[in-house]
Amino acid sequence: MPYSSSLTDEEWEILEPLLPTILPPKKQTRPSNWTKRELLDGIFYQLKNGCNWEDLPKDLPPYSTVYWHYKQWRASGAIDKLMSILHAQVREQVKKKPS
Which residues of the chain have pLDDT under 50? Predict the structure, then answer.
């Protein structure tokens, strides 16, 4: 079920190609049950709504999985890198100088 915080297809088309170069490599112990898009939807839901991680809706990945990825990506600087790239792209679209 999509939420107001869920990525649209257009947003995902922008983010998806950036993720392999930004996200830290994960040890492949077994195939993931969740896509990066589903994990990001869980992270965005929590950040937008300010709920406890444990209160994520049941149709999103388990809160422990979403939180683990959030912690890893934040600690590695991946979220900051992603925000910087997206910020630069928006500035370029509106023809402003990079900051």
Answer: none
